[in-house]
């Protein structure tokens, strides 16, 4: 993977943490299993029960969140 571009591949959240974008994850090609905020793979490799919790939270926030 090439050098990461701020604003396209990642951004900093309000706490100063790096958040990887869906674009970055799609280029990576698979779910890493960490429960990333912008996971375009529906958290397929995240172990239970965390996967179910993330999917439920995503449904609640769906009106506020745009997913690729």
Structure explained in plain terms:
With 68 residues, the protein is α+β, with helices and mostly antiparallel strands. The chain has one domain. The protein is 28% helix and 9% strand. It contains 2 helices and 2 strands; from the N terminus they run E-E-H-H. The protein has helices at residues 22-28, 50-61, and strands spanning 10-12, 18-20. A two-stranded antiparallel ribbon has the order 1-2. It is globular. The protein starts with 9 loop residues before the first strand and ends in a 7-residue tail after the last helix.
Keywords:
68 residues; alpha+beta; two-stranded antiparallel ribbon; 9% strand
Question: Helices, strands, pairings?
Answer:
Elements: E1 10-12, E2 18-20, H1 22-28, H2 50-61
Antiparallel strand pairs: 1-2
Helix content: 25-40%
Category by helix and strand content: alpha+beta
Tell me the domain tally: 1
Distance between the termini: 20 Å
Largest sheet report: 2 strands, antiparallel
Task: Describe the structure in brief.
The chain is of the alpha+beta class and 68 residues long. The chain has 2 helices and 2 strands. It has helices at 22-28, 50-61, and strands at 10-12, 18-20.
